[in-house]
């Protein structure tokens, strides 16, 4: 019986509480929301929202809370260079990517990875002449009007780009225009050459 009395005494003992004024809680929460809003606005692209002293906060935010995502991934808005080959009277995409598809042994075959290096080597050859694509909405449309400008030697140990070839700079379609264009990328410029392997 005494054991039950001890338990009931412990349960009914008053709990010490600290009183925090609600105004302090609201002011602290409002300050943190304002700081988070300023930080978010400092790293977002230009938009309709403009906060007082936003430019000064942007400089301070870069020092206090740098957003270095470029280390992990490249910008989704950057151009990509797509290799094409001419065969059977048509331009064909020569990309070996995506890396995880069955033809690449679900990522175990590394040839698709080495093609990026091969592209870079070809793009840094002398005599490369770019032609603007103008209003072309597809790479094939752009390549139809692009003349052969040079002859290159592919120095890659296992070349995937040989013969009449081209490189097309493709820019991603902005998200706001996604319904206005047929594809996800539009051609910006192209270079056509004869590649010796």
From TrEMBL:
One Pfam family in the UniProt entry: SdpA
Please give the InterPro entries that the UniProt record associates with this protein.
Answer: Sporulation_SdpA (IPR023902)
Q: Where are the transmembrane segments?
A: 24-44
Q: Which UniProt keywords apply?
A: Membrane, Transmembrane, Transmembrane helix
Q: Does the keyword Membrane apply?
A: yes
For the keyword Transmembrane, the answer is yes
| Protein name in the entry | SdpA family antimicrobial peptide system protein
User: What organism is recorded for this protein?
Assistant: Streptomyces amakusaensis
